Structures are given as structure tokens and as C-alpha cells.
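Q: Could you predict the 3D structure of VanZ-like domain-containing protein?
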Amino acid sequence: MKFLSLLSGARYSKYDKTVHVAVSFAMTLIGAVVVPLTWAAIAVFIAGIVKELFDIKHSRFKFDLTDIYANAAGVLFASLVWLLIAAS
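A: Sure. Here are the predicted C-alpha cells for VanZ-like domain-containing protein:
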């Protein structure tokens, strides 16, 4: 399965939460290279919330609280990985 096809159908697929975790994880790690981890984690989490609020306003998308939980899991996992790497 191609990665882009996974993303394009993620909203309707069983991989939706996996995509949310993976994208939040990657964005947090990339952000932590540029700014302090705390700022990167906050920015990615807020971006996930804003995206879900956008979904409320657009009938093509559906708000899903579990997407926010998945985003938070990705941010927390990335933060843990970052701190473990920094400690070694």
C-alpha cells in the first residue's frame, strides 16, 4: 500500500488513528529539532485540535474526539523518545 493512498483514504479507513499518531509523532520530532521540545509538542497538539475544529465547520469532514486522543498519544510518544535520546 502506498503511503499517500493511505493518507488520502485515512478518514474512512481502519488506519485513521494510526495516521494521527504517526503524523503527530513525526511532526513533534521534526519540530523539536527546530524549537525546544515543549514548544514543538504544544504546537503539534494545538494544530491537531484546530484541525478537528475545522472539521466541525466543514460538512465534508467529521469531528472525532478520538482523533485528538490519537494526536496526543503521538505527541507524548515522540516526547518520550526525544527525552530518552537526549538522556543517553
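Q: Anything worth pointing out?
A: The chain has a mean pLDDT of 87.
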